[in-house]
Design goal:
It comes from Streptomyces siderophoricus. The protein is an alpha+beta fold and 148 residues long. It contains four helices and nine strands.
């Protein structure tokens, strides 16, 4: 099935790309979650609009990405969450939580879809988080999860 991606999907493409995927993957996962729309002849107009929006949001050059990487690595991020007595969280920390904590700590505005957690963060303490700024630039920063 041919689809148009509306968001970046890891391993598949970025917003505005027209890709061919299996019917079940598109019908059961990508389209219901809003990551893609079905490709139609009229949908080509949507592709231009999605790409225009992507250009506004994305970091265009490697130099800009390295500059933002320097800003991110200089930020001390603390995230206050609810936790039990043993240090286990009620739920887990999401990429949106990390992006909001970076912004609150005085760092640059980061899209939550660019934040990559190696594994789900479900305990208190220091954790490593990656932020994919550009295809070739990844910023690694430490996030300290503390009890609220």
């Amino acid at each position: 099935m041919k689809i148009i991606l509306t968001h970046e999907v890891s391993g598949l493409g970025t917003a505005g790309d027209v890709v061919d995927v299996k019917d079940g993957y598109a019908r059961n996962y990508l389209v219901p979650r809003g990551f893609a729309i079905r490709w139609t002849k009229g949908g080509e107009k949507d592709v231009a609009q999605i790409r225009r929006g992507r250009k506004i949001r994305e970091i265009a050059t490697i130099e800009q990405a390295n500059e933002v990487k320097g800003q991110l690595e200089g930020v001390n991020v603390k995230l206050a969450v609810r936790a039990g007595d043993a240090g286990r969280l009620f739920g887990s920390v999401t990429p949106a939580d990390v992006a909001a904590a970076i912004k609150a700590a005085g760092g640059p505005d980061v899209d939550k879809r660019r934040v990559e957690l190696g594994s789900p963060i479900k305990t208190l303490g220091a954790h490593q988080v990656s932020v994919r700024l550009h295809a070739e630039v990844v910023a690694k920063l430490g996030v300290e999860v503390v009890a609220a």
